[in-house]
């Protein structure tokens, strides 16, 4: 469904300034099945909950874009991670 | 992170034979943070569980590919859906 290529965006920047990021893309191709429910809004909530189980995510660090036409729904979630601190660790910045 | 374009693969085929599909792509760009845990294996399990809450998925209908280099881990999950039957519905084919 997606044609995609991996392009780490900050190849040029030095490692220290490079941000840690998580990107999730979902596409639901309904294949002419008009009656099929739109799963993406439900999955969006579940996926964000799953991520928050493993890493602390600031509210304003999450960018969500959703698009839909008659055959294809897509959801893009971009999350800037706080340099890899996981929920359990008590390390403060 | 991803450069991507949406290309519904079966544009030419008639709607009846077009399959219903769900595609999930995850990318974790560690931004030079070598100590950051690899979230993708954990997220893979949680995302599949989230999907199975909403739609019946046959074991052999799931294709998973994972790649990792020093800066970027990526996970691709392709799922062929059984024409939109949700877990609750008792409609049999």
UniProtKB/TrEMBL annotation, chains A, B:
Which domain of life does this protein belong to?
Bacteria
* GO MF annotation, one: identical protein binding
Q: What is this protein called?
A: Cell division topological specificity factor
Organism this protein belongs to: Tranquillimonas rosea
Q: Function of this protein?
A: Prevents the cell division inhibition by proteins MinC and MinD at internal division sites while permitting inhibition at polar sites. This ensures cell division at the proper site by restricting the formation of a division septum at the midpoint of the long axis of the cell.
Homology family: Belongs to the MinE family.
What Gene3D superfamilies does the annotation carry? Answer: Cell division topological specificity factor MinE
Which InterPro entries does the protein's record reference? Answer: MinE (IPR005527), MinE_sf (IPR036707)
Q: Which UniProt keywords apply?
A: Cell cycle, Cell division
- What are its GO biological-process terms? cell division; regulation of division septum assembly
